[in-house]
Amino acid sequence: MPTTLPGRLRARIRQLGMTAADVAALAEVNRSFIYDIIRARSGRPSLERLERVAKVLKVDSDWLLHGVGHIEGRAPFADRPDDEFIAIAHAAARPSMGGGAIVEDESRPGRDYHFRRSWIRDKLRAAPSMLRVLQVEGDSMLPTLEDGDTVLVDMNQRTPTPPGVFVLHDGMGLVAKRLEHVPMSDPPRLRIISDNPHYAPYECMAEEVNVVGRIRWFAREL
Length: 222
Description:
- The structure is a single chain.
- This protein is about 25% helix and about 25% strand.
- The protein is an alpha+beta fold.
- It has two domains: about 5-65, lambda repressor-like DNA-binding domains (434 Repressor (Amino-terminal Domain)), CATH 1.10.260.40; about 80-220, Umud Fragment, subunit A.
- Strand 2 and strand 3 form a beta hairpin.
């Protein structure tokens, strides 16, 4: 649960399907009053106006200010992590960043990774069912990706416009590479790039490349 007034205000407005402008109009306050709170620009908002905002949002003003007090209906924050977070499957195949050989990893229970629903929805704008978590191998994408990094792949994004880092099948196995469209190529061609300068870039026909998806996020252990 957010520990700030801006976080609680933003969450309640979103939960009720309203906008900041809607709340301002119904509470008869300036829009800037709402926006300043949401953007953390108002450290000491008028309590009288905040009371009117709380009434529109059907909560106690104390709940907005301190996180305690009455809320009409369900709170905008989940009590269970699975309601607020979504599980993304950990794929068995591991993309290699070196020679390209596929490495099989036995699926194990409990290996799903959990991400905040709001981040998947609002930031990535991705369909959870089309996301997969993989581990990468090798050194061809250094310094961007290191051996053993965990990556989140969006299988709905398979076109390298704009350019980016993708997981693809190179005919031998899964690899993580940087892809970009070759301008003015007809038929279309792709340039496949390793960030490590020890690996030479190469080109091939777009139809020959089996792109699995774009890498949207990564993490590594220190």
